[in-house]
Amino acid sequence: MDDKGRGFVNSGRRELALNIGAIAGLICIAAASLSMFLGIKPLVFQSGSMSPSIQTGALAFARTVPADQLGVGDVVSVTNASGVRITHRVTSLEPVGGDEMMMTMRGDANGADDPVPYYVSEADRVLWHMNGLGYAMAWLSNPVAIFLGGMVAGGLLVIAFGRTGTTTAGPASGDGAKTDSADSRTMREMEEARHG
């Protein structure tokens, strides 16, 4: 492959690496913005209590809303008295005073409501979910995936900002400078034309 073809391939790799990095960066910025400005948080379903509509390993996005904005049929996530997060469907709501509501919930796969009601002034309402995506999210948060992600990012930087062409020794001008091989040919051609 000649120098021109090699430069084209390197340019294509560099552009691809920059595009991949830009897309990954935009995804990170979008996720951070959603979380920071809109209060949207990710939830990973670890049990099948909401099957078949939301399966084990699903990734959901939820937003905290006041209890008076909840409705029967909403899928809501709350923390129970033991500190365990429960995400089930609301089956009834009853005001108990102030901005607090007594809420009963049930998992879609369960035959009965949860054993105790939840007293909430706000709760995380599920806005959207995708089955199976939670497994990927869980894997991406483990140390091996973080290390591999750093390696990929480093590789993209090397490809994007690494050397751009081959270098050869320049004309014997005594300064020891190196130049691109295409520039060397141009200078040789100019010298031949001048002496020729």
TrEMBL record:
Which Enzyme Commission number(s) are on file for it?
A: 3.4.21.89
**CDD domains (UniProt xref):** S26_SPase_I (cd06530)
* Chain positions covered by the region annotation Disordered: 168-196
Q: What class of enzyme is it?
A: hydrolase
Query: Membrane-spanning residues where?
Result: 16-40, 136-161
Q: What are the GO MF terms of this UniProt record?
A: signal peptidase activity
| Regions of compositional bias (Basic and acidic residues) in chain numbering | 177-196
InterPro entries per the UniProt record, alphabetical = Peptidase_S26, Peptidase_S26B
Flavoprotein among keywords: no
Which keywords does UniProt give here? Hydrolase, Membrane, Transmembrane, Transmembrane helix
Question: Which NCBIfam families does the record cross-reference, listed alphabetically?
Answer: sigpep_I_arch
Q: Protein name, please?
A: Signal peptidase I
Q: What is the lineage of its organism?
A: Bacteria, Bacillati, Actinomycetota, Actinomycetes, Mycobacteriales
